[in-house]
């Protein structure tokens, strides 16, 4: 066995308290190397007559990525504490792996050789709002969704959709417009709205905040926003706002004071000024978002800045009863600030959803003391590369997605903010080459995958656009110009997700091993009562897939969820006919 590939470490995605009684243990080994793995475990104080009392339990191989196999076992230690190690078997070798390395036998005479999970402490448990697991989000870029009140249009506002979107043009979208379209969103099945920034700012995107305590006048006022929140809540829709705490806008009054008064400004330490006088050209001599002079970076370690921003966080929850915060450029702000932010907003409302914008491995932010989830761009990348761009085969795709899943504890995957596109990416129509079969497959995968899925406004009716600013096109409200077939597909998928919890988060997901070059992807979701088998065909040709079903564990009758019809299974290798760019969901009841 390749020992260098074997990996485990407690208190992260490889060992974590799943609830107040259960510890989840994972092990990584070289792909195809180990045949069987046993967990040797016991209470560190459980000794009888000088012998440490242990159990030996077989672990389950739960999947693999391109390089590694992953093994899993859930353990319920009677006293909430644990010492454990791994007995790993290949065809030619048996080894023990523990905290002190590798042994030829189980070194149980000294438990220091074993990994330690000291105690399941209740206040250390990951606690995210349960409602998020059953939420289907809809991201709205307010300036481009709907114009409900022309009286608050900024100067130079263009007629709706009369021009291509640009970084400096306005079409008059506002909060009143969103209120007027809530019935549309309810009909689609949406029960969560994520708004990009609505606070006072100079740009059309509003990520350059001028006043964190005021609604931008082009969107309306606080009274209108309160009505929006109330109307949403009346329909069972949650509201999440976007906060930019990494940086502010150029016209943020404290930064303007620094520009005016230089070193004499009482706000000079609110920012990272490298030298005075402050200059914006040819390059800013102060830290910014990227190298944009109009977005100076805030010093969140400054006590006054921290106090100001924490007040912002609790103000909109307390005064308007919002349900979540999406935090822009979250990885460039200190961990300690986010710890204080979580405590501050949770004191006001216990079930506020805290979502960070992080595009890479985010485990350092997901220990239960900062964020509930991050925007799952690794999920987006894999789905787009397979279904839309055809850059990878089904085998590579399933391995990529499993790597995403194994990067985090199981419970975190239930709250992951899964998306296909956003205001920062090209539209899925463009990426898929305007191929409607591919777009439908993308939605089928998104809306049957664990987590909390999000639809970028207009994607459900075929809105197009390249990268920013092209992806920020005005919403198309003329039904004659909407892709209503796509809309009906998305609506039906959302309804299936809501009707059958196993389509969402009520089931452990697994991916059968696939051959290289396959254009299909298959996954299973299973709980104590049901088995869901999903098959998706990214090919212009129909295929017959032989799906392995645990014949002795399920009832003979199953349901084709998409066709809503009952069929009977005759043998364990179940033949499934999938049309070109088609998908199927087969639901089996357990015996």
Record the strand order, biggest sheet: 13-14-17-18-19-20-21-22
The biggest beta sheet reads:
8 strands, parallel, barrel
- Let me know the number of strands: 30
Q: Tell the overall outline.
A: globular
Helix content: 10-25%
Relative strand content: 25-35%
Question: What is the CA-based Rg, rounded?
Answer: 26 Å
Going by helix content, strand content and strand pairing, the class is alpha/beta
Give a structural overview.
With 591 residues, the chain is of the alpha/beta class. It has 12 helices and 30 strands. It has an 8-stranded parallel barrel with strand order 13-14-17-18-19-20-21-22. β15 (199-201) and β16 (209-215) form a beta hairpin. α11 packs parallel to α12 (484-499). The longest helix is centred in the middle third of the chain and has 18 residues, at 303-320. The chain is globular and about 80 Å long. The protein starts with 14 loop residues before the first strand and ends with a strand.
List keywords for this structure.
8-stranded parallel barrel; 591 residues; alpha/beta; 6-stranded antiparallel sheet; 12 helices
């Amino acid at each position: 066995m390749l020992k260098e590939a074997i990996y485990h470490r407690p208190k992260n995605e490889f060992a974590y308290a799943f609830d107040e009684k259960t510890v989840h243990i994972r092990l990584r080994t070289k792909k195809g190397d180990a045949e069987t793995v046993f967990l040797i475990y016991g209470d560190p104080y459980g000794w009888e007559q000088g012998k440490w009392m242990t159990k030996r339990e077989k672990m389950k191989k739960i999947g693999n990525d391109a390089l590694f196999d992953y093994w899993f076992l859930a353990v319920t230690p009677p006293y909430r504490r644990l010492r454990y190690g791994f007995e790993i078997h290949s065809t030619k070798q048996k080894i023990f792996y523990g905290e002190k390395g590798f042994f030829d036998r189980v070194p149980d005479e000294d438990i220091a050789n074993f990994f330690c999970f000291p105690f399941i402490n209740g206040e250390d448990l990951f606690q995210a709002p349960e409602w998020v697991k059953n939420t289907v989000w809809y991201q709205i870029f307010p300036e481009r969704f709907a114009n409900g009140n022309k009286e608050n249009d900024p100067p130079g506002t263009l007629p709706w959709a009369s021009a291509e979107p640009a970084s400096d043009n306005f079409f008059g979208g506002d909060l009143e417009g969103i209120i007027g379209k809530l019935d549309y969103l309810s009909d689609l099945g949406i029960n969560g709205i994520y708004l990009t920034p609505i606070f006072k700012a100079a740009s059309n995107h509003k990520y350059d905040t001028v006043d964190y305590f005021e609604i931008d006048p082009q969107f309306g006022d606080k009274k209108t926003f309160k009505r929006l929140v109330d109307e949403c809540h009346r329909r069972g829709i949650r509201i999440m706002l976007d906060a930019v705490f990494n940086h502010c806008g150029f016209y943020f009054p404290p930064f303007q004071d620094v520009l005016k008064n230089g070193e004499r400004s009482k706000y000079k330490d609110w920012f990272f000024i490298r030298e005075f006088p402050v200059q914006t050209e040819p390059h800013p001599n102060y830290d910014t978002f990227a190298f944009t002079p109009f977005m100076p970076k805030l010093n969140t370690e400054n006590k006054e800045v921290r106090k100001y921003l924490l007040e912002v966080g609790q103000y909109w929850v307390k005064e308007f009863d919002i349900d979540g915060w999406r935090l822009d450029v979250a990885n460039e702000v200190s961990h300690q600030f986010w710890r204080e932010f979580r405590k501050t907003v949770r004191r006001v409302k216990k079930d506020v959803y805290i979502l960070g914008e992080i595009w890479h491995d985010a485990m350092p932010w997901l220990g239960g003391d900062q964020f509930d989830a991050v925007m799952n761009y690794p999920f987006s990348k894999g789905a787009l590369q397979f279904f839309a761009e055809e850059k990878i085969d089904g085998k590579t795709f399933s391995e990529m997605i499993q790597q995403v899943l194994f990067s985090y504890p199981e419970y975190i995957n239930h709250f992951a903010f899964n998306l296909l596109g956003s205001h920062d990416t090209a539209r899925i129509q463009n990426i898929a080459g305007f191929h409607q079969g591919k777009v439908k497959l993308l939605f089928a995968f998104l809306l049957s995958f664990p987590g909390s899925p999000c639809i970028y406004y207009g994607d459900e009716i075929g809105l197009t656009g390249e990268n920013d600013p092209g992806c920020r096109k005005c919403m198309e409200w003329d039904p004659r110009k909407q892709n209503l077939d796509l809309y009906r597909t998305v609506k039906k998928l959302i309804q299936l997700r809501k009707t059958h919890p196993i389509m969402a988060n009520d089931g452990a997901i697994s991916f059968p091993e696939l051959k290289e070059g396959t254009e299909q992807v298959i996954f299973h979701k299973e709980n104590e009562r049901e088995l869901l088998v999903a098959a998706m065909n990214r090919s212009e040709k129909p295929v017959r897939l032989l799906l392995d079903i645990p014949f002795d564990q399920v009832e003979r009758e199953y349901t084709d969820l998409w066709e809503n019809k009952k069929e009977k299974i005759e043998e364990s290798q179940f033949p499934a006919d999938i049309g070109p760019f088609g998908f199927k969901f087969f639901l089996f009841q357990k015996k």
